Amino acid sequence: MTIELDSVGGRFDDMTQVIEASWLENKDQTLDYNPDFLRSCYEYPGTDPELSPAIYEHGRLTAFVCGFPRTVRVHGRSRRLVMMTYFTVAPDAKGRGLGKRVWAECLQRARAKGYDGAIHYCVDGNKSNLVTVGAAESLGLSCVRLFTVQYLMRPVPEGVTLGTGSNANVALGIPEFEDAFARLAAAETSTLELAREWTRPEIEWQCQHRYGAVREMCNHGEATLTAYVLNTAKPSRSPILFVEDIFWSKIGLDERIHMLNHLLARMAGTAEIALAPQWGYADMQAFRRAGFRLSTRKLHAYLTLWNGTDAKIPEAPLYIDVF
Questions:
Q1: Other C-beta atoms within 10 Å of 248: how many?
Q2: How confident is the model at residue 167 (pLDDT cuts 50, 70, 90)?
Q3: What integer pLDDT is reported at residue 168 of this predicted model?
Q4: SS3 of the chain
Q5: Closest by CA position to 181, among listed 216, 229, 210
Q6: Which is nearest to 73 in space by CA: 184, 149, 239, 185?
Q7: Residues 245/185, Cβ–Cβ less than 8 Å
Q8: Burial 168-186 (b: 16+ CB within 10 A, else e)
Q9: Which of 31, 131, 302, 311 could form a cystine bridge with 144, CB 3.0-4.6 A?
Q10: How far apart are CA 4 and CA 259, in angstroms?
């Protein structure tokens, strides 16, 4: 068997096909990581295609993992991490150690390029939890489980009239939204032991250019929400609204509920379900008051640092994206 270790490059159609074939074996509902969505991910500022190693057999994409840059403040110090995601092995190639090999390759490439470590997620109960940790340990690295991310969810209501209160104003890609996002992100996560840091191009991607981007602003910049819409995989293709960045500590509970309901009303006919991760940095009472309930969806967050002693971080609150 001819095995070649390379990078995934721009083979987004091949990546989608391998993901669809492989992930259908999972017991949990998977998502539609279609070529346009994957292409959007690689448009994230600073993305290095070499941090997405892949294994090919006779030219066929067999295993890969994708790495994207993140700057994260850990214990008050900025660290460059690679966000490792979309880890996939073709169904007929599983059980041969290819997943462990490609994962270790990504870690080695990230270290050689000057990154300080890696962060990744695994679905609760999935075998990938063992494979990824084992791959890191095979290199003499410590892979620490940081946190288990749980979600709140609710159906997106249909036929809801948008509120007309003064605190509901929608940001449609205007610079004021990005200014407010930058200011609030820095202020509301400044005391956390682990928190994502942003550049302006990264904010623009997050708020405007990413696949399915959605955003909401309240009181002309006192609060912002970001989200994106992505379908579930075959056969249902149900659109889901994933809420991401929640910055609203400066407004009261009633205003938060109004803001959230305004966002849901805007999404009527576009998304069927809304999901919001609980990291602990944002007050989630408004979600519960707006009808959100605890989902069965659980993701384990793992941190791998070359200096393993730095990975001792309290479980919550944290601020980083689930990707």
A1: 23
A2: very low
A3: 44
A4: CCEEEEECCCCHHHHHHHHHHHHCCCCCCCECCCHHHHHHHCCCCCCCHHHCEEEEECCEEEEEEEEEEEEEEECCEEEEEEEEEEEEECHHHCCCCHHHHHHHHHHHHHHHCCCCEEEEEEECCCCHHHHHHHHHHHCCCEEEEEEEEEEEEEECCCCCCCCCCCCCECCCCCHHHHHHHHHHHHHHCCCCCEEEECCHHHHHHHHHHCCCEEEEEECCCCEEEEEEEEEECCCCCCEEEEEEEEECCCCCHHHHHHHHHHHHHHCECCECEEEEEECECCCCHHHHHCCCEEEEEEEEEEEEECCHHHHCCCCCCEECCCC
A5: 216
A6: 185
A7: yes
A8: bbebeeeeebbebbbebbe
A9: 311
A10: 51
CATH of 3-148+307-311, one of 3.50.50.60, 3.40.630.30, 1.10.10.10, 3.40.470.10: 3.40.630.30
CATH superfamily, region 152-298: Gcn5-related N-acetyltransferase (GNAT) (3.40.630.30)
Two tokens, residue 129: 């939890």
Kindly state the tokens that stand for 305. Answer: 């640092």
Q: Apex CA 30: angle with CA 41 and CA 11, to 5°?
A: 40
Domain boundaries, the chain: 3-148+307-311, 152-298
Note the pLDDT tens digit of each residue in 79-127.
999 999 999 999 999 999 999 999 999 999 999 999 999 999 999 888 8
* DSSP-derived secondary structure for 92-139: GGTTSSHHHHHHHHHHHHHHHTT--EEEEEEETT-THHHHHHHHHHHT
Q: Which residues of 188-226 are buried (b: 16+ CB within 10 A; e: fewer)?
A: bbeebbbbbebeeebbbbbbbebbbbbbbbbbebbbbbb
Query: Which amino acid is residue 82, in one-letter code?
Result: V
DSSP three-state, residue 167: coil
Q: Are 31 and 37 in contact (CB under 8 A)?
A: no
Place of tokens 């990154």: 115
